[in-house]
User: Fold this.
Amino acid sequence: MVSVTENTEQKIIDAACKVFIQKGMDGARMQEIADEADINKALLHYYFRSKSKLFDRVFVEIFSDIVKLLGEEINHSTEIIELIERMVNNYIHLIRERPFVPDFVLHELNRHPQLIVQQIHQYGMDFSKFQLLIDEGVLNNKIHYIQPVHLIVNVLSMCIFPFVAKPIIMGFMLNGDEAKYNQFIDERAGHVVSFIKSSLLINNPE
Assistant:
């Protein structure tokens, strides 16, 4: 059975997540979070003494889901192209469901970059697996060689930027049309995978 303490704490985290999404870290107020959680401000401060500590907790919960997802894709993939396809499709889907995540991550990178590194290590993301899969692909004459760090940065940036730059993409390139932006996001995973495959595969069937 879930205790009252656990229920209250989760209510606060859920409420804080909503407020942080709407207002950002700097714009959010503890009273707003307390109101959203339907508790008084004193009780909120009993669980979380500061807005910064509450933000850190919310961030850890959100970011841990991303790291666990990517870690599972890395651990279960047997070829580099398979890994890229799974990473791109699942990562874009996750961010689409939680479009506030990139802003959260960028904010926390400026505040506590080491916290993100700790989260990645904690959930067992194996960076060396990229090197292993790349080496196997090169050895089997399937792909051109690329340094793992460049491959990862290429993939993540192509997935994240469309969400971070939504105001520019939708407002300037798509004439403010939300439906066109959503269609663009629908097409994004396929485009990113195709782009990466065309640069990596020696004999690209597409």
